[in-house]
Design a protein that fits this description.
Elements: H1 4-21, H2 24-38, H3 42-45, E1 52-58, E2 66-72, H4 82-85, E3 88-93, E4 99-104, E5 109-118, E6 137-139, H5 152-155, E7 156-159, E8 164-169
Organism: Halomonas pelophila
Protein name: DUF2141 domain-containing protein
Length: 172
């Protein structure tokens, strides 16, 4: 124990000497910079630096299972045949009822997104005996599913190759 006390006091005196050598104006500027960065909105700091399609999933009922995001470049297979027809597929674990899918290095074009909350992780959107989905689902442009899934045209959006932030709300 006696060996630690001299080391701690030597370290403390070295830090004190270092702090006293830094001019007061530099310390004030550093403190102001820390305060400004600490007060920036989280949305400013959360933007992704990589160009691509960034999708925040809203209205997730619970954190059970995963969210599957499927990006389609054509109407072929949209939205039900995502395993065979989607250009890109991401499966993301849900954390605190939040999920985000980031599709990077996507060429410019017209796309549509389909998202499902796969609660039991069986790789598909479960439905009851009438065909009504029992798990959450959503589409780009908040395209609605009335008696059937929306068309590719209803859910499609243009992508020019820059950073594109989107939100998709899930329906249960």
């Amino acid at each position: 124990m006696s060996e630690l006390t001299p080391r701690k006091s030597a370290l403390a005196s070295s830090v004190r000497r270092l702090v006293t050598r830094v001019p007061m104006s530099v310390r004030c500027v550093a403190l102001c910079a820390v305060l400004v960065l600490a007060n920036l909105p989280a949305s400013v700091l959360a933007q992704s630096p990589c160009s691509g399609i960034h999708v925040k999933i809203l209205d997730i009922n619970n954190s059970t299972g995963a969210v599957a995001c499927a990006l389609f470049a054509s109407p072929v297979g949209f939205p039900t045949e995502f395993l065979h027809s989607a250009t890109n597929i991401m499966v993301i674990k849900i954390r605190d009822t939040q999920a985000r899918c980031d599709f990077l290095s996507i060429p410019p074009g017209t796309y549509a997104l389909a998202v499902i909350h796969d609660e039991n992780m069986n790789g598909k959107l479960d439905a009851n005996w009438l065909g009504v989905p029992t798990e959450g689902y959503g589409f780009s442009n908040d395209a609605t599913a009335r008696l059937s899934a929306p068309s590719f045209d209803a859910a499609s959006f243009p992508y020019g190759g820059q950073n594109l932030d989107m939100t998709i709300s899930l329906n249960y």
